[in-house]
Specification:
Elements lengths: L1 H12 L9 H12 L1 E8 L6 H9 L23 E9 L2 E9 L14 H19 L14 E6 L8 H10 L5 E5 L7 H17 L14 H13 L2 E2 L6 E4 L2 E8 L2 E4 L8 H11 L1 H23 L17
Parallel strand pairs: 1-3, 1-4, 4-5, 5-6
Antiparallel strand pairs: 2-3, 7-8, 8-9
Bound molecules: guanosine-5'-diphosphate (GDP) and magnesium ion.
Amino acid sequence: HYYCRQSESIGSTLLGYIGIDTIIEQMRKKTMKAGFDFNIMIVGHSGLGKSTLVNTLFKSQVSRWSSGWGGEHKIPKTVEIKAVSHVIEEGGVKMKLTVIDTPGFGDQINNENCWDPISKYINEQYEKFLKEEVNIARKKRIPDTRVHCCLYFISPTGHSLRQLDIEFMKHLSRVVNIIPVIAKSDTMTPDEKNEFKHRVRKELETHGIEYYPQNEFDDDMEDKNENDKIREAMPFAVVGSDKEFQVNGKRVLGRKTAWGVVEVENPNHCEFALLRDFLIRSHLQDLKEVTHNIHYETYRARRLNDNGGLHPISANNTQESNL
Ligand code: GDP
Ligand code: MG
């Protein structure tokens, strides 16, 4: 340590500016050129406003299965998985956003094991990535289809979580970053909302469900303090909308309710802005890193172990994961 410190000061006092800090700019340029993948999955029974919320988050029609399809949309008999990708560009940075919708989840009479197709999809993406990684002729950049984040929509009942909610999050929180949100929170009064949030947090804790950002992956005290605040505010009670209203001379996204217009992006009205800032502005990179370093790593270690430990799976191995 002592030597480190000393050479540090020599660097800056005797040699003058070296330019190590330009690595930030170099990285920025590379990232801008390459762009990045971000894959978000939405789960919850139909009509909870999943498509609307994702569209509100990314301000465009990225999720095409909203009720806006002119009338009733049919409920599939089993859970279907549908992925749609869009390239969104902002400030010269390209993001390939894939929204993975799971219509049919929770809509059946018997919802037993209805998370199976979802967990299968998630594991298949890990498998795909692993196969690319062990390939002798590796791609310079492996396309990343792994699910970085799973938004789980909780029904705004005001009572408690359903058994299905608990089962789903329990099973899936081990393989993917789960972010629970309370859907359509404009249907609750502020008191009901706070009460419900509190109860949901308690229930999640009782059942030992670790949602994102997981305690155990906080890097340092600064991280922990920041994430503690987020965890205490979760699950975010959100409102989505694609309709604009005139409020105090400004056009805002909102929903008309008996109490007036609920402004989606106004933090005094709902927690949409909190969710957006958390998901996109502060934790997007971390969601990707936890997916890669924890969830994918767990899958990879298990797969290579099952495979006899020493020999990696061959590139043209067509055997599917046994999950
Ligand atoms: P999905 O089936 O979960 O994808 O739900 P949709 O996004 O298609 O929305 C279903 C219906 O709920 C539509 O009529 C939406 O306008 C409405 N909706 C969406 N978000 C909200 C919300 O935050 N609050 C209320 N009250 N209604 C919403
Ligand atoms: Mg939908």
